[in-house]
């Protein structure tokens, strides 16, 4: 595989990870901050004959390892997360699913709290000025996930 082809595969793996993490955050934002537990995800996939190991799920969420192109797996994941399968299968920048668009403020608030909480655990108590600065950075990054493809 050429270096540029390898870079394209790596970029797609990272994009799939971004989309899957966004779906996990949608689920968490709608369920008191709880992401879909792996055991429940695995069981729901198995009901339709699709197998997923915890290791594979971890690398799919991190964007590390091989790009997952398993159409039955991606289609079932989309069904479980209640979005059109094209969101996980279409690399030509598909529309954000209506479910995500409808809940983007809730998702952004959930993500913002999660990041600030992690920063506070790592750094200790944060001043209001630090929280404000951190919030601006977080908001700028979060907005990338919700940008309409026509805005880019």
Task: Tell me what you see in this structure.
It is a single chain. The chain has 152 residues and is mainly alpha-helical. The protein contains 8 helices and no strands. Helix 1 crosses helix 3 and helix 1 (3-30) crosses helix 7. The longest helix is centred in the N-terminal third of the chain and has 28 residues, at 3-30.
Number of distinct helices: 8
Tally of strands: 0
Q: Estimate percent helicity.
A: 55-70%
Average pLDDT figure: 83
Query: Radius of gyration, Cα only, in angstroms?
Result: 17 Å
The separation of the N and C termini measures 30 Å
Main sheet attributes: strand count, strand direction, barrel closure: none
Strand content: under 5%
The computed structural class is mainly alpha
Order of helices and strands: HHHHHHHH
- Low-pLDDT stretches are 148-152
Shape: globular
Quick overview:
The chain is mainly α and 152 residues long.
Task: Please describe the structure with a list of short key phrases separated by commas or semicolons.
8 helices, mainly alpha, 152 residues
Fold topology:
Blueprint lengths: L2 H28 L7 H9 L7 H9 L8 H10 L5 H4 L8 H5 L1 H20 L4 H19 L6
Helix pairs in contact: 1-3, 1-7, 7-8
